[in-house]
Amino acid sequence: MTTSLTIRQAAAATGLTAHTLRYYERIGLLDPVTRHDNQHRLYREEDILWIGFLLKLRMTGLPVRDMLRYAELRRLGNSRESVSARKALLEQHTQTVEKTLAELQSNLSILHKKIAMYDAMEAELPAPVLTQPPPSEDASHDHPKHSNTRNSNRNAPTGR
């Protein structure tokens, strides 16, 4: 990775939009991003890694207010209070994620049972009788007997 990325490159690397990156910086999820002489943002590798972690938190359902609290604690450095508070926040969120996963697993199990029930029902049903499907309307237009070339010349000058 290069030492710094433009906002467009950072957006491509993280899957976020430039607008979202600016928003995250504005609300405090991201520390102020280093700027080049022309005031363009330059994202460091550490910024991209932090954004990746924020995305994991977001994907697991952590509310933005809790993400902001975590970012605030992170800015305080690695004091005992900060580390303990960040750890507690992540432990609580982990329990929430585990509960959600258990509920999803239970729901998925029910879906699998329902599908198995329908498989068994289908196996007991008589096989469908296959009949020749009626010709489609489009197929009749392709047949020479029903060709529109005769009709399309009907109004053409005959030269008579």
Describe this structure in words.
- This protein has helices at residues 7-14, 18-27, 45-59, 64-75, 80-124, 137-142, 149-152, and strands spanning 34-35, 41-42.
- With 160 residues, the protein is mainly α.
- Among the domains are: 1-59, Multidrug-efflux Transporter Regulator, Chain: A, Domain 2; 78-125.
- A hairpin with a 5-residue loop joins strand 1 (34-35) and strand 2.
- The longest helix is centred in the middle third of the chain and has 45 residues, at 80-124.
- The model has no long low-confidence stretch (mean pLDDT 88).
What layout of secondary structure does this protein have?
Blueprint: H1 7-14, H2 18-27, E1 34-35, E2 41-42, H3 45-59, H4 64-75, H5 80-124, H6 137-142, H7 149-152
Antiparallel strand pairs: 1-2
Q: Termini distance?
A: 80 Å
* SSE series: HHEEHHHHH
Determine the CATH topology of the domain at 1-59. Multidrug-efflux Transporter Regulator, Chain: A, Domain 2
Instruction: Note the main sheet.
Output: 2 strands, antiparallel
Beta fraction: under 5%
Spatial ordering of strands, largest sheet: 1-2
- What does the radius of gyration come to? 32 Å
Compute the number of strand runs: 2
Name the CATH architecture of the domain at 1-59: Orthogonal Bundle
- Molecular shape: elongated
Class from helix and strand fractions: mainly alpha
CATH class category label of the domain at 1-59:
Mainly Alpha
Question: Which spans of ≥5 residues are poorly predicted at pLDDT below 50?
Answer: none
* Average predicted local confidence, pLDDT: 88
Indicate the percent of residues in helices.
55-70%
State the helix count: 7
